[in-house]
Amino acid sequence: MKFKKYFLLALMIFSVPAFAQETAYKTIQNIAYYPENTEGATEYRNKQCRLDVYYPEGKKDVPVIVWFHGGGLTGGVKELPQALKEKGYCVVGVGYRLSPKVKAAVCIEDATAAIAWTFKNIAAYQGDPNNIFVSGHSAGGYLALMSVMDKSRLAKYDIDANEVAGLIPFSGHTITHFTIRAERGIPGEQPIIDAFAPLYFVRNDAPPTLLITGDRELEMLGRYEENAYFYRMMKVAGQEKIKQYEMQGYGHNMTHPAFPLLLNFVAEQKR
């Protein structure tokens, strides 16, 4: 009985610090990432171009995951995926303008502006600007790739795209996006690789990259194969820090089982 009492007492004593050290998280919503009253400001931009920041209170310099939602560049809303919460990271969920209200290429401009905002402001939300990872699903994966692979985009904000700690697109186009092709009257079955294709910008100095797609037999048209081609051409260009993962048995909506891969990649690559 004495042993049992001492054991329970010890359990209570050592349990208190554990509860006391539990991390509290905070969410700040609808932060504008374009300065107000600047060139190009419209009511639609002011409404759409906002982001949410989820971060752990009481910590500093935690890795950051920027997340772009999917929706074909024509739909969807900003989101903070539940699978990324309470993992010790700062998460930035980005909204952006959508076609047909704007040309789909504007979505890339918005995504780049949101990443630039993160570099310049995330320290105020406990995030580490030296550990910013960029990710997203489908159209969001495409935006992640385009914003970083085309170095000229972040350069407009005086940011070297190679300062991004890692790229993790989920089932993103690596050819020119089908909505951009549709705006030109090009059918979805006709692939194009031009300045709106991540494949156009393959280079050996890009940030570490993890390409994740669904099963090649279950994915959207050619999505696995174009990611495989991107992977191969990056390797040919001399990029060694790139991996590809095919989610066997999962189709295009493979985010849930893919999130652990994203989290593992961030843990491995953080600086």
Automatic annotation (TrEMBL):
Pfam families: BD-FAE (PF20434)
Signal sequence, start to end: 1-20
Domain BD-FAE-like, chain residue ranges per copy: 51-152
Keyword field contains Signal: yes
InterPro entries per the UniProt record, alphabetical: AB_hydrolase_fold (IPR029058), BD-FAE-like_dom (IPR049492), GDXG_lipolytic_enzyme (IPR050300)
Superkingdom: Bacteria
One Gene Ontology term of the molecular function aspect: hydrolase activity
Keywords in alphabetical order: Hydrolase, Signal
Protein name in UniProt: Probable lipase
Organism encoding this protein: Leeuwenhoekiella blandensis (strain CECT 7118 / CCUG 51940 / KCTC 22103 / MED217) (Flavobacterium sp. (strain MED217))
